[in-house]
Write a structure and sequence with these properties.
globular; single chain; 11 helices; 317 residues; 3-stranded mixed sheet; alpha/beta; binds S-adenosylmethionine; 9-stranded mixed sheet; 19% strand
Length: 317
């Protein structure tokens, strides 16, 4: 088995360290920089499909299997020694991080639409973003709603919303829906939360409890092929909102284009919270800083930069 460094794998781990982990997760930044140099792990990762070699997936699988993520050398030893189990999990699992915090980025738009809403989320994972009416929010000193979890968001350039939406119907579509009432699926969602992020783990627990108390309608299916049939189930008299957050980067470009064409033919609104590349916007203002940002768009019109977990929203001037 070759132990040479694979340039593409190395580059993807360095990019993850620089763009995603730096300043957020010291443990994952250390791991990513170490894996980037580890030819033995590159050879092992080369045995699984390219889409299964990503840092987030590898690190979460090792955590799910009880492996160490604080010490890069121990991580490498564990991954190599347990490779058959690691590879099996890499092949069956996917990065399906479900972040209820993203509802804080969606709320300013959802609250301003004609109520009640029929929410249809594509790429819903376990459906935790389908409960924007049940979570509490804190935009600086401005609170909206009560209860748990409380979603904190630094909002600039727009007034914070004054209400939560009224949701008449909620449904999700996903290639592989996760079940918040299944301990194995909840364990996987937990493993996807980065090691130091105790606040996100607490938020996941609280949001899972909200969803488990009234589980969402989740349909297994593709966001192009199966969207019309699910949208047709939305009740009349509610504003249909088809939305998605951090999904389209997983979808091949021709399918993204097919989805964008299809969603525009449906009644109601289309709300997207995605990385800037995936919808090909013509011109966007400079992002607030060099970290990863999503773009919030309504019916194809870009409105704001959002941080990946909903922790900040910067409205365009
Ligand atoms: C990174 S997760 C994001 C989950 C959720 N939207 C959130 O923001 O917390 C992306 C989800 O999109 C789903 N997905 C990817 N491609 C899809 C497709 N073609 N059709 C439906 N769901 C898809 C994945 O299975 C995964 O659950």
């Amino acid at each position: 088995m070759t132990t040479g460094v694979d340039a593409a794998i190395a580059a993807s781990y360095v990019e993850f360290a620089d763009r995603e982990a730096r300043g957020v997760s010291p443990a994952y930044e250390r791991l990513a920089r170490s894996v980037a140099r580890d030819g033995r792990l590159h050879a092992l990762l080369g045995t699984v499909p390219e889409a299964k070699r990503q840092p987030n997936l590898l690190f979460a699988v090792v955590r799910l299997l009880g492996g160490p993520v604080e010490d890069p050398a121990a991580f490498g030893e564990f991954a190599a020694a347990h490779w058959p189990e690691v590879a099996a999990q890499l092949r069956t699992r996917a990065t399906q991080t479900n972040e209820a915090g993203r509802c804080a980025a969606l709320l300013p738009v959802l609250a301003a639409l004609p109520q009640p809403l029929a929410l249809l989320e594509v790429g819903a994972s376990a459906g935790l973003c389908l409960y924007p009416d049940r979570y509490a929010y804190r935009y600086g000193d401005h609170r909206v709603g009560s209860g748990e979890p409380v979603l904190d968001c630094a909002l600039t350039g727009a007034a914070p919303p004054n209400r939560r939406p009224v949701v008449a119907w909620r449904a999700g579509l996903d290639l592989n829906p996760l079940d918040v009432t299944d301990p194995a699926d909840v364990a996987w969602l937990d493993a996807l939360v980065w090691p130091e992020q105790a606040h996100r783990r607490a938020r996941l627990r609280a949001a899972s409890a909200v969803a488990a108390a009234d589980p969402p309608l989740l349909v297994r299916g593709d966001l192009v092929d199966d969207l019309p049939a699910l949208a047709a189930r939305a009740p009349a008299g509610a504003t249909l909102v088809v939305f998605h957050t951090s999904v389209l980067y997983l979808v091949p470009a021709p399918r993204r284009a097919a989805f964008a064409d299809l969603v525009r033919t449906l009644p109601g609104h289309w709300l997207a919270n995605e990385t800037p590349e995936v919808l090909g916007h013509d011109a966007l203002p400079e992002p607030p800083d060099g970290t990863l940002h999503n773009v919030l768009t309504l019916d194809g019109t870009p409105l704001a930069w959002t941080r990946p977990h909903g922790q900040a929203v910067t409205w365009f001037a």
